[in-house]
Specification:
ribosomal protein, four-stranded antiparallel β-sheet, 31% strand, eight-stranded mixed β-sheet, 10 helices, Rossmann fold, cytoplasm, S-adenosyl-L-methionine, alpha/beta, elongated, Alpha-Beta Plaits, SAM-dependent_MTases_sf
Length: 300
């Protein structure tokens, strides 16, 4: 048995209406994806505290799963007539029936951060049982350790002196899956706290901490009191890092350390200049076009 995947190029104003009409016309499922996903042109759409809900990407691929015998040309004609569109660009693919769970799991192998720190999906054996192994499955929240921005933050945490971490209270600002807070605690941090605007991220973080037998606290951003921490790690969008700089600075104790990621190389000078108001900034650390910025909190 097989199905058809109809992939239609779409702009932001069209995508949601196109998705609705495809479902009305009998599609088995419809998804909207960034047309530039997995490239440097990928567009992040997560909102920030106080902002209206985010929209969708400017350039999209609307993908509809159809029965193998579906009349694709007839479907396209009906969709274009209802939406008063013409000349939709599309491609058609055939997808065979398969074990979807195994196919998904096969995409995720254990990730080595350093020799002593690994991210291990729950269905894998840890490559190094003596290492610090964080059990983390892909979920709805960002942060499986595979993206360079997450990898940069984990590497930074792993290279911190154990004496520093043991006495440190760590804040993971924009915690996503909670991976950075969990890693900090497993590496020896005194306490680990996470905060996120997304309720799903808070739920995922709490579940991941429980699965890793780690004591960490996670808050919705609306409940966060902005107490000062010894170490603050923020792996979020560069636009959010700009807007939230005063909040992140307020969350870091004098003499405390900050690590900022989610920054492209082309954005580093802008962020360095902005955060220099509150922090003595270090030289950037780069990986695959992305940058980690670190610094030490100045006296207010």
């Amino acid at each position: 048995m097989h199905w058809l995947l109809l992939k239609i190029q779409s702009t932001e104003p069209q995508a949601e209406a196109l998705s609705d009409v495809l479902m009305e016309q009998g599609a088995l499922s419809v998804s909207i994806e960034d047309a530039h996903a997995d490239t440097l042109a990928e567009q992040a759409i997560f909102g920030e505290p106080g902002d209206p809900p985010p929209g969708i990407w400017q350039q999209n691929i609307v993908t509809a799963m159809l029965d193998a015998e579906a009349d694709v040309q007839g479907l396209l004609a009906r969709v274009q007539a209802e939406l008063q569109l013409d000349g939709l660009k599309y491609q058609l693919e055939q997808i065979e029936e398969q074990d979807w769970v195994r196919a998904t799991q096969a995409q995720f192998d254990p990730i080595r951060v350093t020799d002593r720190l690994w991210i291990v999906p729950s269905w894998h054996e840890a490559p190094n049982a003596e290492a610090i192994n964080i059990v983390l499955d892909p979920g709805l929240a960002f942060g499986t350790g595979s993206h360079p921005t997450t990898h940069l933050c984990l590497s930074w945490l792993a290279q911190l002196p154990e004496t520093l971490l043991r006495s440190a209270n760590v804040l993971d600002y924009g915690c996503g899956s909670g991976i950075l807070a969990i890693a900090a605690k497993k590496l020896g941090a005194n306490t680990a706290t996470g905060v996120d605007i997304d309720p799903q991220a808070v739920i995922a973080s709490r579940d991941n901490a429980l699965n890793n037998q780690v004591e960490a606290i996670f808050y919705d951003s609306a409940e966060y009191l902005h107490e000062p921490f010894d170490l603050v790690v923020a792996n979020i969008l560069s636009s959010a890092l700009m807007v939230l700089a005063p909040v992140i600075a307020k969350s870091c104790k004098t003499g405390g350390k900050v690590a900022l990621s989610g920054i492209l190389e082309s954005q580093q000078q802008m962020l360095l200049a902005h955060y220099a108001e509150w922090f003595e900034m270090d030289a950037p650390i780069q990986q695959d076009g992305w940058v980690l910025l670190t610094g030490t909190r100045k006296c207010p």
